[in-house]
Write a structure and sequence with these properties.
Length: about 290
């Protein structure tokens, strides 16, 4: 049996709106079992997630190869839905990998990126789900390009609220235009963030994660816990705190050696949700046969 494994992802990292992301050590796995007359995907995610050909994984595979032979699939996911941890991107990548395996497409990572970004609209979740590590990516509605690099030694202290926030709702609060000064300040912060990561400077990278004016400014009202976590994390030695993707998850990036101590303080905040202490996943999509 073939198993497809795709990591969760965290997009934006502050100023890298729609262009920077990283892979996290939390996974969606899909095992391809026997062929059958209709598609069926076995999972434990409840009625919210379809078990037939309307499931996003199968829908994505069928969008690439409409007459793909139906199979029984077994899905296990550690990635919560609608929380800003790339659950739909992981499903899209799993669907592309499913079509690749059953249809013998022999797709490269670059091919997968082109397909996935057309479905997702922006590359900052799909690219790290494919490549792993820290990824900077670009997409101009024609072609996507992405490059991955190792992230400095760090832990991602991840607060996942109990409540969902749909990406569409979180994008709806963003302005259509932006003052030039804010755009320059934010895009230059994203540039410094990338350079800092490449030089292994976690402290500088973390500072840049808090210099966004593209989206967090407008989304703050949807995620009041962002400032609360940021203030507490900063007081206890975190390098930087940002809204993961479109939210509502918030991540504080901290030095590995201080992670347990900082997490203990963050867990004292009166918030409804759970905390995870995650590693950055160095690898993206993996297919085991
Ligand atoms: N860059 C996207 C956003 C990620 O912030 O809306 C969520 O899909």
């Amino acid at each position: 049996m073939t198993t497809i494994r795709v990591p969760a992802t965290s997009a934006n990292l502050g100023p890298g709106f729609d262009s920077i992301g990283l892979a996290l050590d939390l996974y969606l796995t899909v095992t391809i079992a026997e062929a059958r007359s209709d598609w069926f995907i076995e999972h434990e995610m409840g009625a919210e997630v379809p078990s037939d050909k309307h499931n996003l994984i199968i829908k994505t595979a069928l969008a690439l190869i409409p007459d793909l032979e139906p199979h029984h699939l077994i899905m296990r996911s550690e990635i919560p839905l609608a929380r800003g941890l790339g659950s739909s991107s992981s499903a899209i990548i799993a669907g592309i990998a499913l079509a690749d395996q059953l249809g013998d497409l022999d797709l490269t990572q670059y091919d997968m990126l082109q397909m996935a970004v057309k479905l997702e609209g922006h590359p900052d979740n799909v690219a790290p789900a494919i490549y792993g590590g820290f990824v900077t990516a670009t997409y101009d509605d024609v072609e996507a390009d992405a490059i991955s690099a190792p992230f400095p030694a760090a832990r991602a202290l991840t607060f996942i609220p109990d409540t969902e926030l749909l990406t569409s709702a979180s994008r709806a609060v963003l302005p259509k235009q932006m003052p030039l000064r804010a755009a320059v300040a934010t895009s230059s912060a994203a540039n410094v963030l990338v350079a800092a990561v490449l030089r292994g400077d976690l402290e500088l990278a973390g500072r840049m994660m808090e210099r966004d004016q593209f989206h967090e400014t407008y989304r703050e009202k949807l995620v009041p816990h962002l400032e609360q976590i940021r203030d507490c994390a900063r007081d206890h030695g975190a390098c930087g705190t940002y809204l993961s993707g479109a939210g509502p998850t918030v991540i504080s990036m901290v030095p590995t050696v201080e992670a347990d101590e900082i997490l203990e303080e963050l867990e004292k905040l009166p918030l409804n949700g759970r905390w995870l202490n995650l590693a950055i996943a160095p690898a993206g999509l993996a297919i085991e046969k």
